[in-house]
Design a protein that fits this description.
Number of helices: 12
CATH topology: TIM Barrel
Strand content: 15-25%
CATH superfamily: Aldolase class I
CATH class: Alpha Beta
CATH architecture: Alpha-Beta Barrel
Distance between the termini: 29 Å
Number of strands: 12
Number of domains: 1
Strand order of the largest sheet: 1-2-3-6-7-10-11-12
Length: 308
């Protein structure tokens, strides 16, 4: 799957992943009204609104980007109906030939970790049959429990030719409370990055490993260090746009071949119509605003990489 991701990045010339992280206050009134008219102001109604919102955005940007990243918590908050919307979104994106990164941030050990891996990336056995449940192409994983928590995911990735993005240095302001702690003379995030590179050595595609890392755009200098520590790991870079990251902050995340990173923007794209810059589109044309935001992001990253 890492080869497909690279091929699609090269084809679109857009190392961008759209975070499909819907909140009800992002969803235009006309979509909510229609969904509630059909299902009432219920969890099912909310899930229908989310699905229709996602579908419109995916239709608008699918030809521009290689990948999407649905954040499962935004769906789980609506219970089973929300998870159904998550699954419909994943399936629809795959129909559009988009690479799907399941932002699930799982982290456990033993049979529990194996079950998470099977549910999101692998297959589950039901009698004489097996099924791919959520069937994402990549998943985000928390390494806090060590190799015991990662190995079951790696095993499934080998079987299914899928991939991981392991949390190394996250974009949130308080990430340093633990991640920046000095351990034997180096910050913890460097030790984690070193371990990601080690795991990745045994899981190589043609040029990059399918074991990648999450490193926030809000910490460009740390990204520079981690790029050096993990030369063959693809880096998923959150924090662009709404969290403050800019194209100029991203150059160190990429290798000299122009690859090695894919940058996430969530509400900066899916709720673009709420920004002053794209207000002219209005709520009625929210998906067109999302498309415009993707094009602007693509140009911002391109300009930054060309000027480095």
């Amino acid at each position: 799957m890492i080869e497909k991701l690279i091929a699609k990045i090269q084809k679109t010339q857009a190392p961008i992943v759209v975070g499909l992280d819907p909140m009800m206050n992002y969803i235009p009134e006309q979509i909510q009204k229609k969904a509630f008219g059909e299902f009432g102001e219920t969890l099912e109604g909310a899930a229908e609104a989310i699905w229709q919102y996602n579908k419109a955005i995916v239709d608008a940007v699918a030809d521009l980007v290689p990948a999407v990243k649905p954040q499962i918590a935004m769906y789980e908050q609506f219970g089973i109906e929300g998870l159904k919307a998550f699954k419909k979104t994943v399936d629809y994106c795959k129909e559009k030939d988009l690479v799907v990164i399941g932002d699930v941030k799982r982290g456990d050990i033993g049979s529990t970790s194996a079950a998470y891996a099977a549910g999101h990336l692998g297959r589950v056995q039901v009698g004489s049959k097996s099924y791919a449940a959520f069937n994402e192409d990549f998943a985000t994983v928390n390494p806090y429990l060590g190799s015991d928590g990662i190995k079951p995911f790696i095993d499934v990735c080998r079987e299914e030719k899928k991939g991981l993005f392991i949390l190394v240095k996250t974009s949130n302001p308080s990430s340093g409370e633990f991640q920046d702690r000095i351990i034997d003379g180096r910050p913890l995030y460097e030790w984690v990055g070193q371990q990601v590179a080690k795991w990745g050595e045994d899981c190589m595609g043609e040029t990059y490993s399918y074991i990648g890392a999450v490193v926030g755009a809000t910490y460009p200098e740390m990204g520079k260090t981690l790029r050096r520590i993990m030369p063959k790991s693809f880096i998923l870079v959150p924090g662009y746009g709404a969290q403050g990251g800019k194209g100029a902050d991203l150059v160190h995340f990429f290798n000299e071949d122009g690859l090695g990173a894919i940058v996430n923007s969530s509400r900066g794209i899916i709720a673009a119509y709420k920004q002053e810059k794209y207000a002219k589109f209005g709520a009625e044309h929210f998906a067109e605003a999302s498309r415009a935001a993707v094009l602007d992001m693509k140009e911002d990253i391109k300009t930054a990489l060309e000027s480095r």
